[in-house]
Write a structure and sequence with these properties.
This is PH domain-containing protein. Keywords: Membrane, Transmembrane, Transmembrane helix. The chain has four helices and seven strands; from the N terminus they run αβααββββββα. The chain has 177 residues and is an alpha+beta fold. The protein has a domain of 50 residues. The strands form two sheets. A four-stranded antiparallel beta sheet has the order 1-2-3-4, with helices on one face. Helix 2 runs antiparallel to helix 3. It starts with a helix and ends in an 8-residue tail after the last helix.
């Protein structure tokens, strides 16, 4: 009888400890607000400088030309400059990602592509070159966040918020120290 009482006491103690441990729903009495992070590539200054130089050179050649062949060369150089500027701006716009952290999970929007993963479905987050990868548990797709080459305050705030929210979803607490 002493053994079963001791056994019940241990089980009850363990059960009480498990019951009082903070769970994902009780870590923070106030739910965290949604956060959105805009990750943008650096402006394509070099490409825009080359494009503007080509456009100006093409325009000058067209203006000063007296021969149709020279005018055609100027038009080609001008068109190259305009197309290069357009391509640089388009690619920069496409490299923009919006990462939204909610109480339920993480969502990433990049152009027309959208992906979402619940906090409980994230196994771990790894950094590879210019990507943060949220590795999903079995049966779910990994979530990839493209990170610009220049990592500034927005990137640091995103990483810190990911850490805090993942810790909170696992019941580790909300201390940031």
């Amino acid at each position: 009888m002493t053994d079963s009482a001791t056994s019940r006491g241990d089980d009850a103690g363990t059960g009480a400890a498990e019951d009082t441990a903070p769970g994902p729903a009780t870590v923070d009495p106030e739910p965290m607000e949604d956060q959105a992070f805009q990750l943008r590539a650096a402006p394509p200054i070099r490409a825009l400088a080359i494009a503007s130089a080509a456009a100006i050179a093409g325009a000058v050649v067209i203006a000063l030309s007296g021969h149709p062949a020279t005018t055609a060369v100027g038009a080609v150089v001008l068109a190259f400059g305009v197309l290069l500027a357009g391509a640089a701006l388009l690619l920069t716009a496409r490299l923009r990602s919006t990462v939204t952290l909610t109480a339920d999970g993480i969502a990433v929007a990049r152009g027309r592509n959208r992906a979402r993963l619940d906090w409980g479905d994230i196994e771990r987050v790894e950094q590879h070159d210019h990507r943060l990868v949220a590795l999903a548990r079995e049966g779910k797709r990994d979530l990839v966040i493209v990170v610009p080459a220049r990592r500034g305050a927005t990137y640091a705030a995103l990483v810190e918020s990911l850490r805090v929210r993942l810790d909170a979803s696992r019941g580790y607490g909300t201390s940031t120290g």
